[in-house]
Every structure is written in C-alpha cells, then in structure tokens.
Amino acid sequence: MATPFQNPLNIPVIGFCAYSGTGKTTLLKKLIPELNRRGLRLACVKHAHHNFDVDTPGKDSYEMRHAGARQMLVASHIRWALMTEDKVDEAPSLPHLLRQIEQDQVDIVLVEGFKKLALPKIELHRASHGKPLIHEVDEYVQAIACDDETELQVDIERLDLNNVEQIADYVCAYAKREQRAIAARRNPIEAECGCDTDPSKPMSVGQGVAHITAQVTPITETETCPIHQALNRVLADDAVSPINVPQNTNSAMDGYAFAHSDEGQGPYQVVGEVLAGHVYSDTLQSGQAVKIMTGAAMPAGADTVELRELASEADGQVRFSKPTKAGQHVRQAGEDIAQGQVALAKHTRVGAAEQGLLASLGFGEINAVRRPKVAVFSTGDEVCQPGEPLTGAGIYDSNRYTIMAMLAKLDCEVIDLGIIEDSQQSLADALTQASTNADVIISSGGVSVGDADFVKLALKQVGQINFWKIAMRPGRPLAFGQVGDALFFGLPGNPVAVMVSFLQFVQPALRKLAGEVNYEPVLVPAIAAQDFRSRLGRTEFSRGLVQMNQQGQWQVSSTGSQGSGILSSMVRGNCLVVIPESVAQVAKGDTVLVQPFADLL
Ligand SMILES: Nc1nc2c(c(=O)[nH]1)N[C@H]1C(S)=C(S)[C@@H](COP(=O)(O)OP(=O)(O)OC[C@H]3O[C@@H](n4cnc5c(N)ncnc54)[C@H](O)[C@@H]3O)O[C@H]1N2
Ligand code: MOO
C-alpha cells in the first residue's frame, strides 16, 4: 500500500518512476528544456539512496559543515545552495523537502524517486528491460511512457517514451488541471461562485503572479519575419551561426602585419598592402610585412599587427618605435561567435543588439513566435473619448491609452474595443466577440465594490472570472479569469493602479504567452532619499525617481503625492519603489528595491 502523501505547496508536483536503466535521467534531460520552452519554470527533487555529497573537502563550505554547522548556505551572484545535515532513519520526508522550494519562482515540481508515496506519477517502461509494470501495483501512476513493444493489460494513458513533446503535453495539461484544483482547494467559495467573498484574506503579489502565470500556455504558432522587422519579436528557434564571426582572422588596427620574431621591432621588408574586403594572396615569410587596414584579413604567415602611428617606413623597410607582442591587434576568426554555435537561444526577445547580431550572421529572416493578440476596452458612464467634449461629470479615458502603449512596447497586436456602454448585454457581447479573436482581454474599472455591478454580472455571464483583493497599493482589486479561450484581466479603474497592476501581473503573463522564459521583473537596490510609506502585510509600489548620487550610488526619491488617480506621478517617476509586505517601515538611508520602468512604459 502506498504511503500517504499530501502536497504542501500551491504548485503541482508530479513524480517519475522507473526501474534503474530505463532511461529516466535521459528522458528528464530532454523533457526539462521542452517544458522550459513551453514556459514552465521547474524545480526537481531527487531521492538518492546513497550517502551523497555535493561539496568538496577543502572548500570553506565543506569545512564549516564538518566543523558542525547544521545548515550551510553558499551563495554567489548566479547561484545559491543550501546544504542541511538532516540524518533520518527512514526515507526523507517529501513534504518537508518540498517546503524548501521557492514556490513563487517555479510552476511545477518534478520528483524522481519516492516511489512508495501516494504521489501522482508517470511511469517509464522499456519492454526489452524485462521488468514488471509499476502501475499494476501503484494506483497513483497516472500515465505510462513506454516503447511500442510494451503490452498493457489495464486501461491507462499511454505515452510514447521516445516522444518528448507528447510527454511534455501531458505534463502541461496535468499542471493546468492541478493548478485549478489547488486554486479551488485554497478558496472553495471563490472557485465556486467566481467572486471574492473573503476580503479579510487578500492575496499576496507573489501568489497572484504565480496563480496567473500558471494559467498561461505559451503560444506555439510561429511565423517568419524579415530581419528588419525582428525588433521585439521572440525567437521561436535557436539562431545557430552559419559562419564564423569574424569570418577571417583580421587586423584590429590600421598598421603593418608581420610574422612576429625575436626582432619584434623590425626592420621588416614591406612586400604589399591589403585593404578591408581584400586578401593578400601570398604567404608572408619571416622578416616580411604588409601594410594592412582595420578589418582586412591577415595574410597567411602573419600573426601580429603594429599600429601605423608607431611605425616608420623608409626604403621599403618598416621599423617600430617599441617592441611588439606576438599576436597583438589581431582578431581571430570565430572569436566572437563560432560557426555552429547558438548565437541567440530560442525564447530570446530581440532588442537592438540582438537584431544587429542576427544581421551580422547573415540572417535575412527569423522564425518568431506569433505575437499575442490583446483586446482592450474601457467601461464607465463617466469615461469620455479623448477628442470629444468632456461631459459635466466625465473623465477622459486615459487607461485604454496607457494599456495600449504598454502592449505596444511588449509587441502585442492590439484590438481596440473602445469604451463599452454601461449595459450588461453590450459588455457580454463585446467580451464574447473579443474572445474569438484575442488571446487576452484587458479592461479597466468596475472591479471594486461599487454599484455598477453590470461589469461583474457580464463577466460572470460569459466567463469564469475571480475577483481578488491583492495585498498591494495601489492596485488592490483585480479580476482574473477566462472568457472562452482568452485570458481576462480586469484592472482597477484608477489610472496609476492600472499601470502598476499591468506591470506586476499582465506583463509577466504576456511575456510568458509570447514565448519568453525569463519574465521576472528586474529589481535593483537603491538608497532611500527619504522615508517611504509602508505597512506590514501589504506591498507598496510608490512612484520614485532613481538617480545616481555624488558617491556613485543609486538613490531614490519619491515623486510626491501618491494618490492612485495621480497619473502625472508616473510621468515624473522612472521606477516603482517596491516595499514588500514584510517591511514595516522604510526610513531615509535604508536600502530599498526599485523596479525601473523606463523600458516598458
Ligand atoms: N468601498 C470601497 N471602495 C473602493 C475600494 C474598496 O476596496 N472598497 N477600492 C478602491 C480602490 S483601491 C480602487 S483601485 C478603486 C477601483 O475601483 P474599480 O476598478 O471598480 O474602478 P471604478 O470605480 O470604475 O473607477 C475608479 C476610478 O478610476 C476612474 N476610471 C475608470 N476608468 C477610467 C479610464 N478608462 N480612464 C481614466 N480613469 C478611469 C474612474 O472614473 C474612477 O475615478 O476602487 C476604490 N474604491
Ligand atoms: O488599487 Mo487602488 O489604486 O489602491 O486606489
């Protein structure tokens, strides 16, 4: 009988079980990049049966552990590892191990080993291996990945052990199903009626992001795109360099190329001249030099260049004013990128440098992920169209324009649905229509507790929408769910709340949808130039102006009044000062994290 297991996390966990020698690790090594490609961030847990160690005697961390530290955390700017001395008589506890995982940073945990646990698993089986079938004795095996020769007696989902994409499809579908089940377990009332009835329990920003990004399946359709239109597109394939860059070993300076010898200062006999785009057809002999221009291919036999300014040429001989170093001022063929090297990995968003790099490799077009299609509309009787007269109690529609501009920066195809009149049926019709064309629908306004409940009624009529309270300011109310196959975001009406909620929740979702894998916001430390508002249990996103102070440190000051209707605070600022829920107060001189938004807004 299986040992009971309960997933302690808010993200799905799935096991892989097999007899040793089936090729579990080989499969996982292919499956992990395939799942990454589909936007799933992964954690893996492996049960080792032997006394393993990842540390090496002589390393500080090893010595500190052996001196008696129960826990040892070693960290660098790219990686950290926590090692814990935790001797247990039986197998380690999987729930305990899972609690160590950063569940706001990953979407699913793949578990290898722990096969006695009541944990949903995929079995791997190879007939030629002659081992029994695990699912016949383990009811928690949900699917079997096997070869053609395997005969199955029971009705179980069959996958092809050699078809990584098919296994990835299964894992993605499992992740989606589990995510919904976890959401329902965490908030059964919300899951049932689609409304937030427990305002005393707001969701953290991290939970909101994790919940939203887990619902996003990256677009798999691709299209070719000419190189001059590649800016901001996401690569669907690795860009493998067809050439060496530079193509030839060439001179980095205007000067003289020669075969370096003990007489590094010359004289050398000048036997010719070679310009960029040309080649010197003979092989240089010892004691010979050619005049060479920057970028020109080095002649055969030459290995060193000296600058023209340091040379004096007379009677067909060149001498240098100081000794030269063998190999100086020469760029080797392929030193930037070698032929066959992945110059840019798939999932990369093409910026100016990337576009130039692709061009430098000769790509006339790229294979890009289809751009997300996003429909946007505004609601509210008071909301007026810019360019038309402002009604007495009206306000011009700014939200649709900030949202459309942020979408343009993310290279989305925007479908502008305008201002939709305040009626449940008009809104329901517009939403249904939008869901047939768009991957994502975004609205602003009408998600709080006001009287204009037709927005909520319309959303309930045509989709599955949850109304959340997020422990953040601004941007407390947020609606999220689905209308048909489209994801729906109902952003709060206040203009600053719209932008802050977009940056925190919509942006990562759209970047994942568009095929990017790294979509976490960039946060940088800065010194607070003044006290900042903060409250335990709520993330504050104050608008700030980050600048370098005279000591060369980043310093951030407030843009002034922080009301969530004051859109000019976003214009004056260049970053959000992110004060997490665990921080009770921020005083002048404290270090805070800021999220620069210049690139995105
Ligand atoms: N009793 C409560 N009142 C409010 C709460 C609450 O929890 N309890 N939350 C407040 C917070 S925080 C926010 S944010 C707002 C969000 O409310 P809604 O999303 O329902 O937005 P509206 O009421 O429709 O509008 C708020 C504000 O924004 C203006 N607006 C709306 N659309 C646009 C647009 N397209 N362009 C420019 N400005 C727009 C609208 O005129 C309102 O002034 O609720 C608080 N209240
Ligand atoms: O979310 Mo509201 O913007 O804090 O006013």
From TrEMBL:
Keyword presence, Repeat: no
MoaB/Mog domain span: 375-512
Family recorded in the similarity comment: Belongs to the MoeA family.
Protein name in UniProt: Molybdopterin molybdenumtransferase
EC numbers: 2.10.1.1
Keyword tags: Magnesium, Metal-binding, Molybdenum, Molybdenum cofactor biosynthesis, Transferase
GO annotations of cellular component type: cytosol
GO terms for MF: GTP binding; metal ion binding; molybdopterin molybdotransferase activity
Catalytic activity: adenylyl-molybdopterin + molybdate = Mo-molybdopterin + AMP + H(+)
Function summary: Catalyzes the insertion of molybdate into adenylated molybdopterin with the concomitant release of AMP.
Domain of life assignment: Bacteria
Keyword Zinc-finger set for record: no
Family matches, as InterPro entries: MoaB/Mog-like_dom_sf, MoaB/Mog_dom, MobB_dom, MobB_MoeA, MoCF_biosynth_CS, MoeA-like, MoeA_C_domain_IV, MoeA_C_domain_IV_sf
Gene3D superfamilies to which the protein is assigned, alphabetical: MoaB/Mog-like domain, MoeA, C-terminal, domain IV, Molybdopterin biosynthesis moea protein, domain 2, Molybdopterin biosynthesis moea protein, domain 3, P-loop containing nucleotide triphosphate hydrolases
Cofactor(s) required, per the database record: Mg(2+)
GO BP field: Mo-molybdopterin cofactor biosynthetic process
Lineage, highest ranks first: Bacteria, Pseudomonadati, Pseudomonadota, Gammaproteobacteria, Alteromonadales
Pathway: Cofactor biosynthesis; molybdopterin biosynthesis
Enzyme class: transferase
